[in-house]
Amino acid sequence: MDTNEEWAVKKEQEKNDRYSSLLGFINHRSHREKSGVKVSQTNFTKGVRGSLHTNQFFARLESLGVKNKNTREVIRNRTVQRTLSMSDMILKFSFIALNSKTDLTLQILPTEIVNKNMERFNLHLQPPRS
């Protein structure tokens, strides 16, 4: 969580550790087959509360070819906005699920979310008991 000052450093390291063997494998295979392909990793780390290190975020966008400053700012704003919006939705749904009866919860949630997840987890509503 981005409440701890070291959250971004820890997440960056976790991401690097998680994908290092995959990057090594691809680069090794490419070198062995003389394909000329070289892969690298660019992390974009943001916290669940919308935190991100702006200068680092901009530098990484620029390294991927996003040279326009205004475009980088729009991407940053939308990233933070979407993160906060998703966190808000998750919190609302969790509150509804924890504080409501199942059939009422399903009526409150958006139909596309209910239908998708009911099918995905092969769930079926039981008729209420008398």
Distance between the amino and carboxyl termini? 44 Å
Q: Overall pLDDT, averaged?
A: 82
Helix and strand content put the structural class at: mainly alpha
Proportion in β-strands: under 5%
Distinct helical segment count: 5
Main beta-sheet annotation: none
| Topology, number of strands | 0
Give the radius of gyration: 21 Å
Fraction of residues in H or I helices? 55-70%
SSE order: HHHHH
Instruction: Give start-end ranges of low-pLDDT stretches.
Output: none
Overall body shape: extended
Task: Characterize the structure shown.
The protein is mainly alpha-helical and 130 residues long. The chain has a domain at 1-43. 65% of the residues lie in helices and 0% in strands. The chain contains 5 helices and no strands. It has helices at 7-32, 54-63, 69-99, 102-108, 111-120. The model has no long low-confidence stretch (mean pLDDT 82).
